[in-house]
Amino acid sequence: MELIPTADEVRELLERTGALRHGHFVNRKGLHTDQCLQLALALRHFSESKALCVGLSRLLRAQDKVRRYLPDISIVAPATGGLPVAFGVAEALRAARTYWAEGDDGKLHFRQFMEQHTGERVVLVDDMIRTGRKLRQLRQLAEQAGAEVLAIGVLASESLAENADFDSVPFCRMTRVEPQYWPADDCPLCRQRQPLTQLQM
Predict the structure, then answer these.
(1) 169: alpha, beta or left, given left = phi > 0 and alpha = psi -120 to 50?
(2) Which end of the chain is more exposed for a tag (fewer CB within 10 A), N or C?
């Protein structure tokens, strides 16, 4: 595998580690889908996690604004899925700082006493992006604290994320997956009587 794996190589890695599964699933919103993506199942393996994070770091380093300010940048992620990506990318880029935002109510916030400063340059990362809502919220949070967002990077994006609007901020991804979604009463996999797995994520 090259230092920047191809999108197909990344998908093969995700399938091999069980992070990308094909079948018949129902998510917490009740929608049926033919794919399940759980990046944590790939990131639990050291070599695979390192390959993904180093690959993403190289895509980010290729962005002029990121390269120009290294190593004096911060890598910022939403918890919890983005944490291993943040630390892996920070190590590869030798970034000065790594921190994250968290929130159980759907609203992200930084921890009390988290020191941020006006003009801080940050790169936002996450394991995956479905709609872009969380990363847009994280960007707003960082910019409200006076930071400049240099780039955004994820290991995988769903086709739904194609409409995510990050304005002029560069967006990098390792691969793209294209699950299909259906309402429960109009699911072709149900009509084919394929076994159904309830997703807990």
Answers:
(1) beta
(2) C
Taking the C-alpha atoms of residue 126 and residue 83, their distance in angstroms, rounded to an integer, is: 8
Q: Could you tell me the two tokens for 79?
A: 């918890």
Domains defined along the chain, listed by start:
7-198 (3.40.50.2020)
pTM reported for the whole predicted model: 0.93
Split at pLDDT 50, 70, 90, the class of 174 is: very high
Strands (E), 67-194: 74-78, 97-102, 109-110, 121-129, 148-158, 171-177, 181-182
Sheet holding 97-102, edge to edge: 109-110, 97-102, 74-78, 121-129, 148-158, 171-177
- Tens of pLDDT, residue by residue over 81-97, are 999 999 999 999 999 99
